[in-house]
Amino acid sequence: MVRRALAISVLLGALLPPGAAAGRQLSQVSGQIDATNVHYSSTLLRVSPVRTGVSWRVIDLNDEIELVNRSHETVTVFGYDGERYVRILAGGAVQVNENSPAYYLNQSFFAGGVQPPPNATARAQPDWVTVAKTGSFVWHDHRIHWYSNRTPYIVKDVHRTTLVFHWKVPFEVGAVRGDLYGKLVWIGEKPVSFPIGAIIAFVVLLIASVAFVVVVRRRRAAPGATPKPKREAW
Q1: Is residue 224 part of a domain?
Q2: Confidence check: pLDDT of 97 > 50
Q3: What is the pLDDT of residues 13-67, one digit of tens each?
Q4: What is the number of domains present in the chain?
Q5: Which whole-number Å values give the CA distances from 23 to 44, 106, 143, in the listed order?
Q6: How far apart are CA 83 and CA 124, in angstroms?
Q7: Which domain holds residue 145?
Q8: How many CA atoms lie within 13 A of 16 on its CB side?
Q9: Within a domain: residue 226?
């Protein structure tokens, strides 16, 4: 099951050497502290099937998915254990299933950050709660990002772009099942670089200025130097 896979991945991540933690950005999302790692990029590659009036996109680099439903059918997104997690009705009403484990797990950036209550299971009867009537919904999805604060073992060189994994998110439009297909990529750390040429030019100019000042002062202090004429007071 996906939840078990996520838990195993977090455990493996804890055994890996630290690396990516410095690249996180913090923001406040749905009452939770959300950490988006800027070293990753999650890309939506393909939607199957494509339906007119239904659009999807990954936002915030690798953090969230946005669903917009302007069609005449209900669009449902499934959670990590295959349960119905969120749906947008044909009229635009957005409903979340509060008996879905994904409803609670998605409130934390890392898997396992929030534990679902006992009533939230994949086999529980859906408890649909309307949260908006906008026809659009944005949610955090653990399937599209790296779920640990440690660098993936597959990243051998942190300065090189590396494919971490391909991902899939199941959904349903009307009675037709489909999937979002995408990939997560480590986009690397840019090495720290300094403008060496500009620094050298500045140092040379500074040395030349200091040398000029020293020479002028020495000439003025020389014994044979011509004194400045004094102004007569009228």
Answers
A1: no
A2: yes
A3: 333 333 333 343 333 333 344 456 788 999 999 999 999 999 999 998 888 999 9
A4: 1
A5: 22, 21, 20
A6: 9
A7: 2-186
A8: 20
A9: no
Match 């669903």 to its residue by tokens.
Answer: 67
Query: Could you tell me if residue 36 is inside a domain?
Result: yes
With respect to residue 37, please indicate whether it lies within any of the assigned structural domains.
Answer: yes
Q: Are 58 and 64 in contact (CB under 8 A)?
A: yes
What amino acid is encoded at 89 in this protein? L
pTM passes above 0.85: no
* CA dihedral angle for residue 150, residue 156, residue 157, residue 158, rounded to 10 degrees: -10
Strands 162-173 and 176-186: antiparallel
The dihedral formed by the CA atoms of 196, 198, 202 and 208, expressed in degrees to the nearest 10 = 90
Residues 6+ apart with CB under 8 A from 219: 225
Residues 6+ apart with CB under 8 A from 217: none
**Cα gap 21→77, rounded to integer Å:** 30
Q: How far apart are CA 44 and CA 58, in angstroms?
A: 6
For residues 127 and 123, what is the distance between their CA atoms, to the nearest angstrom? 12
Polymer length of the chain: 234
